[in-house]
Write a structure and sequence with these properties.
With 308 residues, the protein is of the alpha+beta class. Helices cover 29% and strands 24% of the residues. The strands form four sheets. Strands 9, 10, 11, 12, 13, 14 and 15 form a seven-stranded antiparallel beta sheet that branches. Strands 5-6-7-8 form a four-stranded mixed beta sheet. Helix 1 (5-16) runs parallel beside helix 6. It starts with a helix and ends with a strand.
Length: 308
């Protein structure tokens, strides 16, 4: 059960390992673009190519969907990046229902673990396979694997690393469950960082933060949806940046250096400064700082503002 590319990696790994996949559950088709053309989820496209039946319920409590799941008589349910299922459904399979989560539980429970790990400047994260229960990401852990977060990682690169590592871990764990060669442990109790769903308010850059915190916000939102600010009345996405901790006395959000030849666009932060290296102006393609400066009149003293 899953929808985005993260789940697609796991579907491919399970299929390649030869598991008998009775059906794939994914989100309903959606109309996209100006022509409102119906598009399939990545998981559905792959499942159809593999010859696997696809279920696309409008809701997880739909009686017909629940009956169909029960009639499949699957031994194990596998959930990756999908909706919360009713506890009664999770109890259908004799071997239980497992989930692949993109963090080292109990750290970063929630819908956006990759974003929040980057927001917080973590140096490592990981993937966890656990049994689902009535809580949110609280079930017993079967397996986990640590993944380093490189300084150059952003949401896009870390997403790909975790999707690939998670898919392998999930396939190995599923095989161990079928073989009866596994143990499950309760999650550690305590206070840990969480990962709630992110929304438009999270995309807006707060220039009063220190430069490294702003850089981590940029990393956690790049390449999509992009950290956002307003410049000369127009919205702009900042896709990559470096931080400089050297003292900067200018008002946060003020351009303190705009050098076309060197391609340097430096903006004052609450502490230090942010060196912007790649941007995407509204309704335009992404570009590096040098090209951006050559095409826009930006001088020291220009202000970046917060913008929704």
């Amino acid at each position: 059960m899953g929808t985005p590319p993260f789940a697609l990696c796991s579907l491919k790994a399970l299929h390649e390992r030869g598991f008998d996949i009775k059906a794939v559950v994914t989100q309903p088709d959606k109309e996209r673009g100006r022509g409102r053309k119906v598009s399939f989820t990545p998981v559905k496209e792959a499942a159809l190519e593999m010859g696997i039946p696809v279920l696309q319920p409008a809701g997880m409590k739909d009686p017909q969907f629940i009956n169909t799941l029960k009639e499949l008589s699957a031994s194990l349910f596998v959930v990756v990046a999908f909706r919360i299922l009713p506890i009664s459904v999770l109890e259908f399979p004799e071997l239980g229902s497992v989930n692949l989560h993109a963090s080292l539980l109990p750290r970063y429970r929630g819908a956006a673990p990759i974003n929040h790990a980057l927001f917080n400047g973590e140096k490592e994260t990981g993937v966890t396979v656990f049994f689902l229960n009535k809580g949110v990401d609280t079930g017993n852990i079967i397996s986990s694997e640590t993944v380093a977060i490189d300084d150059g990682d952003d949401y896009g690169t870390l997403y790909e690393k975790l999707a690939a590592r998670g898919a392998c871990l999930l396939a190995d764990t599923a095989q161990n469950i079928f073989d009866g060669n596994y143990s499950a442990r309760p999650q550690e109790k305590g206070t840990f960082p969480v990962a709630p769903k992110i929304g438009p308010a999270d995309f807006v850059i707060d220039w009063t933060l220190d430069a490294e915190s702003i850089r981590n916000r940029v990393r956690g939102l790049s390449p999509r949806p992009g950290a956002r600010a307003a410049l000369n009345g127009a919205r702009i996405k900042i896709l990559s940046a470096a931080s400089d901790s050297a003292p900067c006395d200018a008002e946060p959000g003020t351009v303190v250096e705009a050098d076309c030849k060197k391609g340097i666009l430096r903006v004052a932060a609450g502490k230090g400064s942010l060196i912007i290296t790649r941007v995407q102006p509204e309704s335009k393609a992404a570009t590096d700082a040098r090209c951006f400066l050559n095409g826009h009149r930006i001088v020291p003293g220009t202000r970046f503002d917060r913008s929704q």
